[in-house]
Design a protein that fits this description.
Elements: H1 11-30, H2 35-44, H3 68-79, H4 88-109, H5 120-124, H6 126-143, H7 148-171, H8 184-209, H9 216-240, H10 243-246, H11 252-255, H12 261-269, H13 272-283, H14 288-300, H15 303-325, H16 330-337
Helix pairs in contact: 1-3, 1-4, 2-6, 3-4, 3-8, 3-16, 4-6, 4-7, 4-8, 7-8, 8-9, 9-15, 12-13, 12-14, 12-15, 13-14
Length: 344
């Protein structure tokens, strides 16, 4: 998955510049919470561990994450002639919502690890973690209270995010094949909501805050396509990713009956490998041997290659919007072009 690989890239420099602006603003926001809530929020954002010690394993602005969403917000503002500072309220808001969604995701999925350390609920308990997630969401909304157009996009993203998460959960109870099977089209709508909506809000809010609200609708669409590509890349990692890098057990999505695109695409293609895969999935792939066999069959049936092809198509659509409307936005384009070339 390599669209846009020839685009000049200085991702590390760009991320470092955005992080230098973002983290103080995030810390200021978190400081408004009750001390206990602030400590949990800081943990969720990748700052200290449960005992208060600083750890590099977190996935938020203070940890090892790429702060993709805030960076998109800030670079979108710059791309339309504004400044990164103008987009800070939107950048902080989308990062707080992202952290909120991960806190709740881990509770829902019962994932005990998040980027090589305890998930928040494992460290502090389910009830406190729910409250911390709610606090992060409340802080996010407060950042945009004086920015109507940006708030409109964040509100839309929150609705779509919940819809996408709900669809993703209900998919797990549906059969792999037959009249009630999950279709590729349903999956795409789910991915657009679950992952694309917040990337869309980042791009649209950043554009609006940067002084070009008329363009924010196109950037919203760009973010949706980008998010679908990002989710598919995550699906691939969920089956074939290295646990030492992803922080999750190998074949974790297959073990949980997650309806991810590589598997859905493999089943839709048909053929001997797909038929064998269907039989394995019908019995359940909860043990290591079954999960390994299922992963092999998905690849043999062409599911992995097809998923990567779909991701490339959505990424190309996102990049085309930037090429048409923001031809000089090299840093933003390079960052977006990198979303499917991930190892973590």
């Amino acid at each position: 998955m390599h669209p846009g690989r020839t685009t000049p890239r200085r991702d590390d420099d760009v991320i470092a510049r955005c992080r230098a602006l973002l983290e103080p603003a995030l810390r200021e926001a978190v400081s408004e919470l009750h001390p206990w809530g602030a400590r949990m929020a800081a943990f969720a954002l990748g700052w200290p561990d449960a005992e208060g010690h600083v750890s590099g394993g977190g996935g938020g602005a203070g940890g090892g994450g790429k702060i993709l969403r805030p960076a998109i917000a800030m670079l979108s503002a710059e791309a339309v002639g504004g400044t990164a500072e103008q987009a800070l309220p939107g950048a902080v808001a989308v990062e707080l919502v992202h952290a909120f969604s991960l806190v709740h995701d881990d509770i829902i999925d019962r994932d005990e690890q998040r980027r090589h350390r305890d998930a928040l609920w494992k460290a502090y308990g389910v009830g406190p973690a729910v409250l911390a997630g709610d606090s992060l969401l409340a802080l996010a909304v407060s950042r945009l209270s004086g920015h109507a157009e940006a708030m409109r996009h964040l509100s839309a993203a929150l609705t779509e995010l919940v819809q996408g998460q709900t669809a993703d959960m209900t998919f797990e109870t549906r059969p792999w094949t037959g009249p009630e099977e999950v279709t590729v089209e349903e999956y795409t709508r789910m991915a657009a909501g679950k992952t694309g909506s917040l990337l869309a809000a980042a791009a649209a809010a950043g554009t609006a805050l940067g002084g070009a609200p008329a363009l924010s609708g196109r950037m919203w669409g760009m973010g949706l396509d980008l998010g679908i590509a990002f989710q598919i890349a995550d699906d691939v990692l969920g089956i074939w990713g290295d646990p030492r890098v992803t922080g999750k057990p190998v074949h974790s999505d297959l073990r949980r009956d997650k309806k991810t695109l590589p598997v859905l695409a493999a089943l839709a293609v048909g053929g001997p490998a797909a038929e064998e895969l269907s039989e394995v999935l019908a019995k359940g792939a909860g043990d290591e041997e079954s999960a390994r066999r299922a992963a092999r069959l998905v690849e043999e049936a062409g599911g992995r290659a097809l998923a990567e092809e779909v991701a490339d198509r959505h990424l190309s659509a996102a990049l085309a919007v930037m090429d048409e409307h923001l031809p000089g936005a090299a840093a933003l384009r390079a960052l977006c072009a990198s979303v499917t070339n991930r190892t973590h």
